[in-house]
């Protein structure tokens, strides 16, 4: 979540921001004992000692709003008044972040508890009110112009912490409205967020999940159980799971289609109001990401589909199937009965991350024991996994459902990669500590790759090597190809609305089905995709985050570069990696990444990742004595 003045109004999105999944999200069957896995819950008293204390702070912050509004017109008087005004707003923002984090985390513990949802709505409302009270900031800074802003920065050392924000505001001058218009846009923020909030509640709490009997045991096939059972080794069970689960979303295709279309139209409205050519341009402009990054990713992912299809054919052979279907995409290629308690998973993560150095692993080990993460599965808990690092004065918080398999350990390593990024970035002042999503997924996916490399290196037997390789390849498939496919769908959906086309659930399913079949080689007989599964778009919460998912694919490409060098003991690569982490949001993220040695607007990083996948396929084929054609 952004901490700068640019996105004060966007604090309200904290409660509805999509939870970040791993390539294969971890989940836990209801029968799994949390005690047996020693899973943990977070300690939110480090934020507020009680809900009463939280409420007192909310009222105190609400009382500060008129003071923020009163600053309008003062920023341009001198360098000193500019610093004083920005410092005052930033101090408010810092407290508001902490307030919003607590409300969001409590709401996500159990989406079915209305009192927690109500508190979250109060935080959202306050954030929107703060956005309205400071909506004039952009316009007032833009009026100063680049020359005056740079002169003020040079004259007042205290403005150094605000320099990135000020320069970004000036850069975006052409898309900054008048003070009154900015106020109107800020007022529109809350209603524009409603589609995401409605979807979140419908999908997580209100959909009527069916019951399913598997080997004599009847379960409620909700999202958690779907994730657990879609990997069942019995192909008949997998097919039964898919044919039972997806009709629920299909039955709500029209409703969820209307919800998502409302979101798309809201985004298009904002893009038009701010004079952007389209929604993609607006989404990338915030962090100054070249559009060539997005389009190069899609281009290179499509060009690499032969490697993906080669791997999918090998999967089919290994599973002993005549024809693979979409329901076969999550079953493990190799079995491992090994289970890890959460402490064991943490120890494994620490061992795998030794190449990052003792400072990193010592800090991480200490953090494991300090109540930062909610890992216990429970009904009503928000699905997926995420790290929320917006409470600058406390520490990051993490959410996942830990189930003890290696995929769950990988998710743990991923989310703690985010947390450690935040720890290092917090060496920056508050105003520059928060990093963009574009860089956020690099250290987390680097952790996943280092864990995968460690597991392969530690494998002693042929079966262990096959298992480790299959885990690596699944990670690459899910994080690069699947997210690139999501990126294509999202772009197509936004472009359809931008062109004024009629968009509904049926059309969205048609777009998604075409992409699903193309990526999985349906026409070539690689994987058969039933038409029902075109509704999968309705299951993905990230689409409400506007051009968010593509960054998983760009990030794993950058992470592959870093993991390879760091794993080999290249101290220069490791130094550039930590320089990137410590930079936080002190510069544009594309520039930070490029300066670290990875230009994601060029094909090479993606081709390097594809070579990594191709090498993995070759290794797996060699172990099996088989080659997919």
From TrEMBL:
Source organism superkingdom: Bacteria
Cofactor(s) it depends on: Zn(2+)
Signal peptide: 1-22
CDD domains reported in the protein's UniProt record: M3B_PepF (cd09608)
Domain Oligopeptidase F N-terminal stretches: 143-207
Entry note: cofactor: Binds 1 zinc ion.
Gene3D superfamilies documented for this protein: Oligoendopeptidase f, C-terminal domain, Oligopeptidase f, N-terminal domain
Keyword Hydrolase found: yes
SUPFAM superfamilies listed in its UniProt record: Metalloproteases ('zincins'), catalytic domain
Assigned EC number: 3.4.24.-
Peptidase M3A/M3B catalytic domain sequence ranges: 229-607
Keywords: Hydrolase, Metal-binding, Metalloprotease, Protease, Signal, Zinc
Similarity field: Belongs to the peptidase M3B family.
Function: Has oligopeptidase activity and degrades a variety of small bioactive peptides.
Protein name in the entry: Oligopeptidase F
